[in-house]
């Protein structure tokens, strides 16, 4: 895994990567009908958990898929979701 991270960083593809701490240390903040509620973790009802993230910069969705395949081959069984980061037009 360290070699993959080093290679991706040196090539300029990997911008950032971090693991997330357990939900027991977090909180959810919700706005509903003008009222804000804060719920402390853990969130046992969660069906899907974000264990970490990687921010990559590639020219296409296809390249993002290929980079993700390489990651999963090393990380092992699991699932990754690819999301595009919003950028203001012209930037």
What descriptive keywords fit this protein?
Alpha-Beta Plaits; two-stranded antiparallel sheet; single chain; 91 residues; alpha+beta; 2 helices
Number-wise, the strands total: 4
List SSEs in N-to-C order. Answer: HEEEEH
Strand fraction: 25-35%
Q: Rounded to an integer, what's the Rg over CA atoms?
A: 17 Å
The overall number of domains is 1
Number of discrete helical segments: 2
| CATH architecture label | 2-Layer Sandwich
- The largest sheet has its strands arranged as 1-4
Question: What general form does the structure show?
Answer: extended
Helix percent band: 25-40%
- Tell me, rounded to a whole number, the average pLDDT: 90
Largest sheet features: 2 strands, antiparallel
Under CATH, the topology can be stated as: Alpha-Beta Plaits
Summarize the structure.
With 91 residues, the protein is of the alpha+beta class. The protein has a single domain, classed as 2-Layer Sandwich (Alpha-Beta Plaits), CATH 3.30.70.
Topology:
Elements: H1 2-10, E1 14-19, E2 27-32, E3 35-40, E4 52-56, H2 61-75
Antiparallel strand pairs: 1-4, 2-3
């Amino acid at each position: 895994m360290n070699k993959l991270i080093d290679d991706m960083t040196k090539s300029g593809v990997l911008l950032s990567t971090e693991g997330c701490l357990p939900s027991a240390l977090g909180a959810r903040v919700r706005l509903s009908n003008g009222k804000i509620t804060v719920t402390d973790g853990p969130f046992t009802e969660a069906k899907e958990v974000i264990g970490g993230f990687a921010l990559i910069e590639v020219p296409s969705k296809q390249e993002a898929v290929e980079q993700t395949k390489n990651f999963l081959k090393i990380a092992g069984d699991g699932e990754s979701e690819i999301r595009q980061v919003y950028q203001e037009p012209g930037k």
